[in-house]
């Protein structure tokens, strides 16, 4: 279970991170957590990886945003 306020925190966090040239990666969520994220459409917004190595690649591969674009 996640309340709308809790979902809002995740949405805010990904927005803030990306606005500041960062990202949020979820690593190995449990099946119930993954299911909730899928139902809420949050799985489309977040990178979900199975290992630390896969997670770190997201940060290396993410190009920085160019201001004004």
Structure description:
- Helix content is 52%, strand content 9%.
- It has 3 helices and 2 strands.
- A two-stranded parallel ribbon has the order 1-2.
- The chain is flat and about 35 Å long.
- The mean pLDDT is 88.
* Spatial strand order of the main sheet: 1-2
Mean pLDDT: 88
- Percent of residues in β-strands: 5-15%
Q: Pairing-aware structural class of the strands and helices?
A: mainly alpha
Radius of gyration: 13 Å
Percentage of residues assigned to helices: 40-55%
The outline comes out as flat
How large is the count of helical segments? Answer: 3
Low-confidence segments, given as residue ranges, are none
**Strand tally, please?**
2
Question: What features would you highlight for this structure?
Answer:
69 residues, 3 helices, mainly alpha, 2 strands, flat, 9% strand, 52% helix
List the topology elements:
Layout: H1 4-19, E1 25-27, H2 31-40, E2 47-49, H3 52-61
Parallel strand pairs: 1-2
Q: What's this, in brief?
A:
The chain has 69 residues and is mainly alpha-helical.
